[in-house]
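#struct-pred
JK: can someone run the complex with glutamic acid? inputs below
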Amino acid sequence: MDLKKLAAALIPDNDLLPPESYEEIYPERARAPKAEVTRLAPSPTGFIHLGNLYSALADERSAHTTGGIFYLRIEDTDEKRRVDGAVESVIRSLNYFGINFDEGAEIDSPLNKYGPYYQRRRAEIYRAFAKRLIERDLAYPCFCTEEELNAVREEQTAGKKTTGYYGAYAKCRNLSEERIYANLAAGKPYVIRLKSQGSADNKIIFRDEIKGEVTVTENDQDVVILKSDGIPTYHFAHAIDDHFMRTTLVIRGEEWLSSLPVHLELHKALGFRPPRYAHTSSLMKMDGGTKRKLSKRKDPELSLDYYRKAGYFPLAVVKYLMTILNSGFEEWSLKNPEADYRDFPFKVSKMGKSGALFDLDKLNDVSKTEISKLSAEQCYDFLKSWTDEFGTEADRQHFNDKTYIIDVLSLIMGIGGKKRRKDIERAEQGVRLIDYFFDDTFAPEYNYRFGKDTVNAVLKSFAEKYDPSDDNGAWFAKVKAIAPEVGFAAEMSEYKSAPEKFGGNVSDVAEILRIAVTGKPDSPDLCTIMRILGKRRVLKRLSDAEIR
Ligand code: GLU
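RT: done, structure tokens with the ligand placed:
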């Protein structure tokens, strides 16, 4: 058969470049010997999940700990799945977690020399190579219809045979020249398939960067490389793009491991040296005592939006993922509590070989620790950015008064004090904790443990004595002075020796004042709270809190 003529009939484009020329168009990257070139290659569905972040972090760390490049390629061969704005959303979501691309789709960078980074814009490259494979008798047209393929599959399943298009089942592999041209003349649609040279009797030993040595069966499937609309399949595009974008390390989900023999054969047929591969294990969770994969349908925590909405501190999510990525990270963090996680010597080879367990409780712990390390300014920025996006109108108003909020946060979080508050997991909790510092969100519950006369006497008396310029000592002396006025003990020792003689003690006076001013029986230092609230608010609250 005249294969050149056949290739021209199947792929008639006459403006294609010779495939070899792409070696010069996309030359080897100038890089240090150990520098890794990695990529994230999502399809533009608009849904970016925790698994993507996990993978992206492994990619980004592998590239950036070795002085390499991390780029973004968009695998948009499936037009049906495309969602507007999805690419920007991937970039934005990862950026929120501190992960940035050096190059790629929608990245403004002088490094963008290996594009286009959208697969749909690379059609002529795939077509040039498919044409060359046909000329070399390594690819052929297949005219089988969906129904024919289904019938073969059913026959294989019934006979307990491996399913797929191979060996005797590959009906179009040996079509006569006449048949092919007759089909073409009849306008029958066709796909281009690889003419596999492999055999299922052969085993290949392959070294995966994570899984170690893996033995796989050689590919014998005549997989589709170009679909009937001329668009490549994932397999074909992967081989060509990772070669010409000069990826050194492909990090991808373990669901791709079963296609690896196809990819190895494609690289060989195309004359490329395959990249190194690292197949990551899936993120799992414990569900009623069993481990299962995180699922889009069942687990809201798979979506990255979940973390933003819930107000997780982004660095906490990243650090927690680092602990799952490399088991040594936790220990390293404990030894280097102040260090930037980027200083950790991340190694893809140290990633877990099997299911990585994602545990929200552990993330919460990491988040608490990270939030407890923030300065007042950082804490303000973090809570404000959450509030801007997810808070109420009132929250947003409150955060306009930065000086006031910084005072409040310093007190509430114990910033700069001896006891740092360590129980805040998420922004929302922090924002709700400061509600009582604002008149419009102050929602007191006056659950006094004393009667009307006592409560009102305490509140009135304090209002008369109160001087906002008092220091803690003077403030407390005034609280103490109220005790005997209502028949309470001013000294705890006095009270303890004869409790029956008193209606209460000085701490009960403070509790009444606390309930009046903060709306609840527990709060940080009340004197400081009053100082922050200011005279007008304190006096109003004392009077509003009287029992009528
Ligand atoms: N588009 C593929 C996916 O989203 C990419 C897999 C890969 O990284 O090669 O699963």
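RT: quick notes.
The chain has a mean pLDDT of 95.
The pocket of glutamic acid is lined by residues 41-43, 75, 238, 250, 252 (CB under 6 Å).
JK: thanks, will look after standup
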